[in-house]
From TrEMBL, chains A, B, C, D:
Protein's UniProt name: Nucleotide pyrophosphohydrolase
Origin superkingdom: Bacteria
Pfam families registered for this protein in UniProt: MazG-like (PF12643)
Gene3D superfamilies hit by this protein: MazG-like
Record PANTHER family: DCTP PYROPHOSPHATASE 1
Signal peptide: none
Organism of this sequence: Bifidobacterium favimelis
């Protein structure tokens, strides 16, 4: 889970440093892509984490999550709500009976 | 926040459809990058969301978060813990006194 | 332009260092995304290049192009041909008369 | 190779449709990342191209190259020159004697 107190700690650290003035949906969408690529880099050359360093993978995933939290806050979005709303759409589009074991979702999902 | 029940709902939907067999840290790191680019696409040509469609932005952010949740679960990582651990490192590296109003972090942060 | 001699120089440098054994369409597609994000990082916080450093932007664009060259070579693709083939499709889909001045392509192009 | 006539054809198609007014280094850097992710998507779940569709891979690589060409033109950069300049730096940093067979470059290269 990501608790409210974690979200608050993230936002407070940004505010204390006046970093939040750099934050907009557009700049944060770029930041998420940049950090996602740093995470991807851990698996650039193969299925095992570079140098087997899982702590580094965790840090990069944390960076992606941190910018996602900041983007949700910046836009006034409730993370639980948007994730569950999207899940409801996905479940409707891919019913268990017809989707089970199929990679169809994985071809079509955007 | 992202509550435990939301995490459970995500993981159950994947299991029910046998989608979790496609999940590994490597495939999920790619999925996060791909969804992050879909989010970036909302702001491809400017600072306003394409077509002003904030619901679409919310859905794309939800897709990034969903794959982040699945990657954390896949690797047995506690999202609260990794985000707070990374925040502690960031705070140590950029003390309020010297970082306030500076974009230094934004040049160096990876 | 990117001349044949440039392509040869890139491939020879990789071969001399035995780096080409890391190259496959899959690993190179990841490498292109990773370098593209480094290029994006130059414009993370605004429309001006970070630190106004255009030489750095050029280097990052060169990294993307280098991996594109390696991927085309790895797959036996003729870059001129694939770019012109795709251009022909785009021109067919977006005739000048109906597309001029419209951002339609920019909403739909994937 | 990517010949001058291909570059000209790309730029003319954009001009005819007034699409070049959307082009700036910042918007094109985002476009390159977005198309790179579409290319990555071909290899999202494994080392084989989705549906074994290599024509689709070629089209996505062409999209990345097209935006790279447009960015180079937009910034007045000579693609041959920037690629060879960057190659010279890479060769200096990773001499054949010490780099051969090593993945060092692949850990450090950004």
């Amino acid at each position: 889970m990501i608790s409210d107190s974690t979200v608050k700690a993230i936002m407070e650290a940004a505010r204390e440093r006046d970093w939040d003035r750099f934050h907009s949906p557009a700049t944060l969408s770029r930041s998420i892509s940049i950090e996602a690529a740093e995470l991807l880099e851990c698996y650039q050359w193969g299925d095992e984490a570079r140098d087997g360093d899982l702590g580094h993978v965790a840090d990069e995933l944390a960076d992606v999550l941190t910018y996602c939290i900041e983007m949700a806050e910046c836009m006034g979005l409730d993370m639980d709500k948007i994730v569950l709303d999207k899940l409801a759409k996905t479940k409707l589009k891919y019913p268990v009976e017809t989707s089970k074991g199929s990679t169809e979702k994985y071809r079509e999902l955007h």
